[in-house]
Every structure is written in C-alpha cells, then in structure tokens.
Write a structure and sequence with these properties.
The protein is an alpha/beta fold. The chain contains eleven helices and nine strands.
C-alpha cells in the first residue's frame, strides 16, 4: 500500500519545514542514492577497512574515509596509497562490489527518507534517482526497499567503476529545460554536476563526506545537516 502524507504531516515528522517546503516548490528533483537516501556509509567503511588490513596496510577509520572519499572512486582508491603493482584498483574494486552485494540486504533508508519521497510523490513532484551506482544495483535497491512507483526514472551507471555522472546529468537537464529543479546529494561531485547543468544544489550530511568539506564550497547552494536537523544557505 502506498503511503500518502500531506506536506505538513511529513514535514512535522522530520521537524524541518524549510527543507521540505523548498523541495515541494521544485518541478523535478535529482536524488542521489548512496549516502543520501540509503544509509550505507558504515558498510562501505567496514569493507574497505577489512580489505586494507587483510592486505597488510593500516586500517581506515570512518573519520579518514569521510575526508578522502570522492567520485569517481578511482580517485578515492588512489588516496588509499596502495601498492598498485600488488593490489590494483580492479582488485580492490571487485572485492568491494562482492562484499557490498553480500551485505546490502541489511541496509536501511535514512530515517524519514521514505516519508519524504512518498510525500513529494503525493505533491506530484517529479523525482529521479540519479546515482553513480550501477543501474542493476539501483533496480535491486528500489525493489528491496519497496519504492516502486516513487521515481519517475532511474539513472544509473552502465559499469561498476562509478564514473562521472555528468553526461547523464546533462541529458536529464535537457529533458527538463526551463523547469525549476534541484540535485540532492552527499558528495561535492553531486554538487559540481548540479552547477554544471544549471540547477540548485543541496548537500546532505551523515553520508560519505564530512561537513567540513562541504562548508563554504562554491558548488553548494544549501546544506541540510541531518545531525543538527538544520537547513541553511551555504554562504
């Protein structure tokens, strides 16, 4: 059964009407998935930390992860300073994908995410799931979390290396010309795509990058700090 909530109802549920009213005023939204709607940061840290330790490297703390994670993930793996002659990008990436798939069934949406999505659907806001994740992974996750019918479109990568989303973002922007839209994501890469395609940007905390990296960044128009439950312009 589809949950339909009045805007005021689900705003009260999250105790932040500014954020939700802002989203309700848009004609289309580009939602990132991992770290924005799906709470998977701890799983990602756990997988990489274990992989590093098993290969004789120092482990990776969550604090360090939040400071170095980026898209495309190849740049992030470079910051791990692996011996590429022994442990290649492909080996680490394939290990990550395998372990992630094994653990993904235990993942949950962030608190309130379902209510936001369903409430905006009831307001007839066009919502697009726009992710660096593989399209098959998105299809699995949408079904696994019973979100069929919420998104107007799923836009995912055609490979597992989480490359740039820019080309797909340009296409989506062209399809929605002259309509007010916004991208919501947890990485600066998401925000840079938003600026490139000419829409507003909202960065959300408690995902895959730290608040310190976001504060004052020129590509970020607004910040929604989930920990503090605050929504504000990023000056």
């Amino acid at each position: 059964m589809t949950l339909v909530l009045d805007c005021d109802d689900f705003a009260a549920m999250l105790k932040n009407t500014d954020f939700l009213n802002y989203l309700s005023d848009q004609e289309y939204l580009l939602w990132d998935w991992n770290g924005t709607l799906l709470n998977d940061t701890d799983l990602c840290v756990e997988i990489i930390d274990k992989a590093l330790l098993e290969r004789g490297y120092s482990g990776l703390s969550k604090e360090r992860y939040l400071e170095i994670f980026t898209i495309p993930v190849y740049d992030y793996y470079e910051k791990l300073e692996l011996n590429q002659e022994v442990h290649t990008f492909e080996e680490i990436a394939n290990n990550f994908i395998s372990k992630y798939k094994a653990g993904r069934h235990s993942l949950n949406l962030y608190e309130g995410a379902r209510e936001i999505l369903e409430g905006l659907k009831s307001k007839q806001v066009k919502q697009i799931l726009f992710s660096a994740a593989h399209i098959e992974e998105l299809e699995f996750q949408v079904t696994n979390h019973a979100l069929e019918g919420v998104f107007h479109e799923l836009s995912g990568a055609s490979d597992y290396q989480a490359g740039s989303k820019l080309e797909r973002g340009i296409k989506l922007s062209d399809q929605n010309k002259n309509k007010p839209g916004v991208i919501i994501g947890d990485t600066i890469h998401d925000m840079e795509i938003g600026k490139e395609i000419g829409i507003e940007t909202i960065w959300v905390s408690e995902g895959h990058q730290s608040v310190q990296r976001a504060m004052g960044h020129k590509s970020i128009d607004y910040i929604f700090d989930r920990k503090e439950n605050s929504f504000f312009k990023n000056n």
